[in-house]
Amino acid sequence: MDNRRGFSLIELIIVIGIIGIMSTVAAYSWNGYLNNSNLKTAAREVMSDIASCKQRSVSEGIQYCIQFTDGSPNYSINTSSCGAPTQTQAKNITSFGSGLTISNTNFNSDQVIFLSRGTLSSNLGTIVLTNNRNSTATITINITGRAYVSFSMR
Predict the structure, then answer these.
(1) d(CA 143, CA 129)
(2) DSSP 3-state assignment of 8?
(3) Which pLDDT score, from 0 to 100, does residue 1 have?
(4) Tens-digit pLDDT profile for residues 24-35
């Protein structure tokens, strides 16, 4: 009886094939995880800008406006007060990952305007961010300027 130990070529090919299939599935899942993670980060950044504008409008006593562009990843923060020049800060949510867009806003003229007392100039509104997997982050802002986010991941 021959006492050789080891693996046959067929066994090695089967194991390599199984590892290849598992790594393909893992890479697809990892890509989805990264896309959804980027969406969450972008939504938190927008919420941070909303909270910052609310706080600054109260502390500086001037209006702050966040202008959103539907179907685009861009938005801007504007300051305005009587007699003072307007300052604009441009923002882009694709800095957190490609495929992120502001798909829908339902504020007047796509603007969130904070009055000098920190409240909104309009009632409740939402901002919807989407990624290339059609996952959504819906940011809801009430009249007091408080923002909430809810996620629908795919």
Answers:
(1) 20
(2) coil
(3) 59
(4) 999 988 988 999
